[in-house]
Specification:
This protein is an alpha+beta fold. It has seven helices and nine strands; from the N terminus they run αββββαββααααββαβ.
């Protein structure tokens, strides 16, 4: 019995509920897992990007905002907003922390990226933008990380999000629920 309690405690410490904002077809409202594919950056001037990360956040309201923004940029009446509730097994993640104002530049430097020489000039709240840059993503993966921890404020809500390598995400994430929002 003690072993079972220890196992459950260990699992509860390593697992956290997170949310992912997206759009799903109105006629086929199912989420079958994260897929590696071309996606759209959120916002009015959305761009088509080859996505290498799936993003989740502990903030359900932030996920709702991303779903709204994605629907606006998707330009289709055949889709609706959705929030995916999932459990992340953090024991399977090797996370590059880019969420700390005092250390994010040093952490980028440690993987070989000199932010101050790059011309990006981003602050800690803009790190999510770098996750669409193949040069940076390749450095993240090359140094053994399969996730990044970020501060995002592009939705008007400031909170943490995690970008998880799409090659690994479906073995790390367990889908609990899919909500229309």
């Amino acid at each position: 019995m003690k072993d079972l309690i220890k196992k459950l405690l260990r699992e509860s410490i390593n697992n956290s509920v997170m949310y992912h904002g997206t759009v799903l077809p109105i006629n086929d409202f199912k989420f079958n897992g994260f897929e590696k594919r071309t996606g759209f950056s959120s916002g009015f001037f959305s761009n088509e990007e080859n996505r290498l990360f799936g993003f989740v956040t502990p903030n359900k309201e932030m996920a709702k905002k991303y779903a709204e923004s994605k629907l606006e940029s998707f330009h289709s009446k055949n889709y609706t907003k959705a929030v995916i509730e999932c459990v992340i097994n953090f024991s399977k993640l090797t996370v590059l922390d880019l969420s700390d104002e005092n250390t994010f530049e040093d952490n980028l430097y440690d993987i070989g990226f000199k932010l101050w020489e790059s011309g990006y000039g981003y602050g800690v709240k803009d790190m999510w933008k770098l996750m669409d840059e193949p040069q940076i993503v390749n450095l993240v993966f090359k140094h053994g990380y399969n996730a990044v921890k970020l501060i995002e404020d592009s939705t008007g809500i400031v909170d943490i999000s995690y970008g998880i390598n799409l090659n690994d995400i479906n073995s790390i994430v367990k889908i609990n629920n899919v909500f229309k929002v």
